[in-house]
Fold this protein.
Amino acid sequence: MGIKYSNKINKIRTFALVLIFGGIIIMYLGLFFQRSPLFMTLFMILGFLSIIASTVIYFWIGMLSSKTVQVVCPNCGKYTKMLGRVDACMYCSEPLTLDKSLEGKDFDEDYNKKKKF
């Protein structure tokens, strides 16, 4: 069984979702410090900033997602969005590429990085 790949857009959306739940948990932890207004306020502000960061990330990935290339996955036949030279299908995690020189090669996300000479 091979490695399961994930689409970059889905990874970023998952990170933003984790920030939301993390922010709520951080704010909830602040309730345990009700006797210390300083710590309670600190936890509430950190949780709030985490939720704001998640909102910014969701907005950014939404704008980025509207500019991506849509391709038809050869495995499942559904339209999927690609970021970079190599990516995975959003539905079946099939490795995809638009670069003809990378066809037939093993999937490696390092192909998206710019080479430093």
Remarks:
- The beta strands are 69-72, 79-82, 86-88, 95-97.
- The radius of gyration is 20 Å.
